[in-house]
Amino acid sequence: VLQKWVNREISNFDYLIQLNTMAGRTYNDLAQYPVFPWILRDYTSEELDLNNPAVFRDLSKPIGVCCFYKHFIFFFRYENFEDPLGIIDKFHYGTHYSNAAGVMHYLIRVEPFTTLHIQLQSGRFDCADRQFHSIPATWQALMDNPNDVKELIPEFFYFPEFLENQNGFNLGQLQMSKEVVNDVILPKWARSPEDFIYKHRKALESEYVSAHLHEWIDLIFGYKQRGPAAVEALNVFY
């Protein structure tokens, strides 16, 4: 599979799906759901220029430290962490880049994930401000919130329906703006959910991502998962 990918006989998307499968990740287990990277950082421009390296996220760093100031937060958290009982090892992140709640968060508008989300929240939808309602706002929250280190799921690259509230669920309204949460708000450069998926998939297969994807793979599936390499890469999870 690696050789096929290097020879460009399979796409970046196919390679990531194969890696997830070999790593034991599966659509049948929300706790081990396939994980895909955030690949862009430009969610505000009117047009998306895939020839400009500045629109892409730095794939060599965990998503938690893609924003420079957070680098220091996690570095010092690790250096100063000490469990009085000596049971818990040092870590940079107390949450994970992929978990069941995160999958339900992204797929809240699509069954069976809607029902699973409601069950998780004791029989009701979570408060609107904590729901997945905007792609630009989700990226901004990643930049601002040290406790948010979620990567993406494969649906961001092929499944426009998860961005639409086709079932008409009452997801509440945002506290500050009183805006009703309905379809997911898209980046300005996307004209529709289908257009977002088309351009996002195109970005995944772009020359820049093809040249740097292995750096992210090292963090998630490779030698930077644990040990000294993980510490150096600020990639140690609780």
UniProtKB/TrEMBL annotation:
Gene3D superfamilies in the record: BEACH domain
One Pfam assignment: Beach
A Gene Ontology cellular-component term: membrane
Keywords in alphabetical order: WD repeat
InterPro entries: BEACH_dom, BEACH_dom_sf, BEACH_Domain
One function term, GO molecular function aspect: protein kinase binding
Residues in BEACH domain copies: 1-238
SMART domains: Beach
Entry-linked PROSITE patterns: BEACH
GO biological process: intracellular protein localization
Top-level division of the source organism's lineage: Eukaryota
Name of the protein described by the UniProt record: NBEL1 protein
Organism: Glareola pratincola (Collared pratincole)
